[in-house]
Every structure is written in C-alpha cells, then in structure tokens.
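Q: Please design a sequence for this.
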C-alpha cells in the first residue's frame, strides 16, 4: 500500500480546539461497512443503535499529567514528556530540545533535581531523581495535561483546568497513557449506564497510549512502518466476557483503535487462561488485515497518514472511509481528539 493512499486534506479550522459542551453532545456518523450507507446521529443515541447481543470493550487507561517544564544548568528550558516508569525510581521521558544534552546533566523544576542518565532512543532519556522524592509526585504537583500539539493553548495557564477533566474518559482507572483513548471521551456516566443496560456485556481492558500511536506514517510502503510497543492489560473478568461473546457469536464493539489493537493482539495469540493477560503490543493494522474479534468500533476522525486512520480503513475499507471522511468534512463534523465520533458497523 502506498503512503499517498492514506492522505486527505484536513483544513486546520476543522480540528476541534474544545470538546463539545456535553460529552455526549458530539455528533456520530454511523457507517455501515457492508452497504456504505451513512446516518448522522448524536453520540447519546448509541444505546438505540447497539444490539442486545453486542459486547462493548473499553480502554480504561488513564492519561497522566505527563508534561513538565525543566531547566538546564545553563538556564535553558527543556520540556519533558514523561512516558513510563522504568523501575527503581527512573522514568523514560521525551526531552525537547535534547540534542546537546550530555549524560549526567541535572535538570530542575523548582527544588526538584533530576539526572539525565542516558539516552534510551533518540530524543528519549532515562531520568532519575538526584535526591529524595519521586517523579510520580512531581507529575501530580507540576505536570500538565499532555494535550496534542494541534490543540492550541496560551502558555501553561492556557492548559485549562477543564482539560484535566475532559481529556480523560469517565471510566479511566489505570494511569499510564500520554494521550487519551479519544473514542471514549464521549461517554457520560448516564450514557455508559444506559449502554451497559442495553448490551450483553461490557469488558474493560487497558492499553497505555504512547507517542508512537500518533507518530505519522512516513514509509513510502505503508507496511514498512513500525509502531512502538505499548503495554496492555486484560483482567480475567474481561477475558471471560470475550470468551462468552465469541462462543455465542456475539458482535464485539471496540471503543477506539486502542481497544481494537488489544482485541486483535488477543485474537492472534489466544484468549489466555483464567488469569490476567499482560504484555506489550506493536500491532500495526493495515488494509487486508483479518479481524478475529472486532466486529464493530467507535472511533473519532483521525489525521491523514496516521496509524489510526490506517486501522479504520482496514476495518471499513479504504474507499468507504474516504467517502465517510469526505461526508464528515462536507457536513461540518469536528475532527481529531476533541472532535466528533464515528460508529463503524
């Protein structure tokens, strides 16, 4: 598949800068992938669209306040995006700029000192507290919501207090993501309860979203792109729901591309035994992929030349997704993280 096949024109003004007034006010484009028919709904209509035999899968990973401003000994500024704990108090962080940073450099935020011990990969470093205190405490006290760069805010104060609430699903329970699983942002407690009362089951998994999910595809041959591994966890109760669904031939509806990647990683490797399944996945889903567990999905509208766009094209068919995105643009849908939603059935 050529990279140009993942391209489309996304006007800047169609990228949502704020969420809908209410989470479930978001518009919902319903695409029937068998016929190509489209219907225009509101997200709160979801209980009336899903079937009583469906099973919904949610990604309950929580976004951490991962951005922290640090200062070099020279007084220069460095922005850190803390990605994951490495154990023994150390974290991996994406540092910008980091080109001239030397191993052993002490970076500070107020009275907290962190040692940049070594590069892990280009642009990323292992950081460790130089004294007492934990990086987790620094994030809670000083970390900012890691909004995507296309959501514009004015300085530190511009990352509004509301973003801490709205750039987080209402069912987030396992901290670890540096970007929200955005398809889930549209659920309210009442709506989720209505969906749960309607469908045959709800399964909660966790995939901690890293920056690799949103790294643009640049390989001329799309299949040559490689995704960064991301940690996932599937508790025993979720596995039990999925096993029952598969045995009964029920449709599994994934909320978001991250849930799809967990499902299809499980589908490729089996649904495990009685205990929790945990590991990492670097699964990159492209058109031609054979879906084993995912029967339908909720998703937002994604960047061109991105891995999530590639995934939805794999599920719905590239031509159908192109037409659906063109329809969304023509009808004023809002795109990307704080934008509107799509249901592909």
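A: Design:
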């Amino acid at each position: 598949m050529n990279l140009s096949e993942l391209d489309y024109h996304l006007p800047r003004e169609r990228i949502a800068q704020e969420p809908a007034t209410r989470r479930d006010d978001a518009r919902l484009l319903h695409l029937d992938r068998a016929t190509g028919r489209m219907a225009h709904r509101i997200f709160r209509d979801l209980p009336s669209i899903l079937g009583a035999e469906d099973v919904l899968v949610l990604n309950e990973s929580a976004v951490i306040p991962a951005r922290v401003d640090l200062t070099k000994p020279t007084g220069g500024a460095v922005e850190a995006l803390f990605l994951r704990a490495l154990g023994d108090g150390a974290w991996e962080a994406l540092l910008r700029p980091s080109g001239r940073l030397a191993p052993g450099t002490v970076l500070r935020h107020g009275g907290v000192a962190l040692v940049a011990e070594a590069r892990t990969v280009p642009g990323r470093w292992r950081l460790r507290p130089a004294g007492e205190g934990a990086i987790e405490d620094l994030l809670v006290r000083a970390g900012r919501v890691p909004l995507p760069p296309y959501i514009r805010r004015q300085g530190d104060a511009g990352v509004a207090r509301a973003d801490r609430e709205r750039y987080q699903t209402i069912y987030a329970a396992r901290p670890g993501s540096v970007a929200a699983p955005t398809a889930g942002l549209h659920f309210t407690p009442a709506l989720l309860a209505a969906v749960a009362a309607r469908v045959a089951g709800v399964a909660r998994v966790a995939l901690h979203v890293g920056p690799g999910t949103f790294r643009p595809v640049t390989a001329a041959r799309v299949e040559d792109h490689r995704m960064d591994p991301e940690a996932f966890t599937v508790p025993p109760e979720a596995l039990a729901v999925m096993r029952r669904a598969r045995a009964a031939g029920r449709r599994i509806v994934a909320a978001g591309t991250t849930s799809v990647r967990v499902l299809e990683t499980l589908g490729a490797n089996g649904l495990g035994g009685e205990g929790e399944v945990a590991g990492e996945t670097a699964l990159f889903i492209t058109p031609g992929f054979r879906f084993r567990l995912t029967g339908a999905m909720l998703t937002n509208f994604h960047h061109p030349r991105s891995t999530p766009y590639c995934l939805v094209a794999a599920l719905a068919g590239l031509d159908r997704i192109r037409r659906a995105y063109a329809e969304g643009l023509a009808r004023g849908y809002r795109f990307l993280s704080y934008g509107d939603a799509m249901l592909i059935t």
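Q: Thanks. Anything notable?
A: The radius of gyration is 20 Å. Residues 67-143 form a domain with the Thrombin, subunit H fold (CATH 2.40.10.240).
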